[in-house]
Amino acid sequence: MEPIEEQWRPVVGCENAYEVSDQGRVRSLDRIGTQINGKTGTQYMSRRRGKILRPATANSGHRYVVLQGRTTRTVHSLVADAFLGPRPAGAEVRHKNGRPDDCRASNLEYGTRSENAEDSKRHGTHFHAGLLECKRGHDLTDPRNLQKSKTNKRVCLACRRDRAQLYKAGQQVKAEGCCINGHPAIPENRYTNGVGKSRCKVCVREKKQQKKAA
Questions:
Q1: How confident is residue 75, by pLDDT bands cut at 50, 70 and 90?
Q2: In terms of CB atoms within 10 Å, which of 20, 31, 131, 196 comes out highest?
Q3: Sign of CA pseudo-dihedral 72, 75, 77, 79
């Protein structure tokens, strides 16, 4: 079986300086430029040979290169622009096999943001889908704490129950005329802080005492 020949095409927007291949590689082209001698201050013509650029890897696993003018571009976007054609409005580049570092043209296609998110869930690379607990520490492996919303987002039911209890407690506080800890909401116990919120002096005093005791 004969090896597949690597195809190179100009980088969109930098056609005279760079090329990108269907295998996900980027190279600079030979070019002639003007430089200044630092000692004499005279200008001279210099020839720079093109080379294969070494991409860096972001925390997300996507590869990127720095082009002229210190412009940072992801490799998959360069490949897509050159081999998939103009990107439709609102579309993103999808990696078919779920590997963000695989920038071959055959592994890329355009899709919506929701399709991209579903891809990451299917491949097990979606951050939120892999969380075992919510940001407040509730166990998301417990089916009693997890629900899918209409938009297919994960909702922590434990957080929702806590918010309902706090709301109920707040309504009771208003009805009884006291703070959330039960201190009478009389003028002697209230003060307004620097941002205009009414605070309970007794609660503030007790909190300071607890900090000192700790």
A1: very high
A2: 20
A3: positive
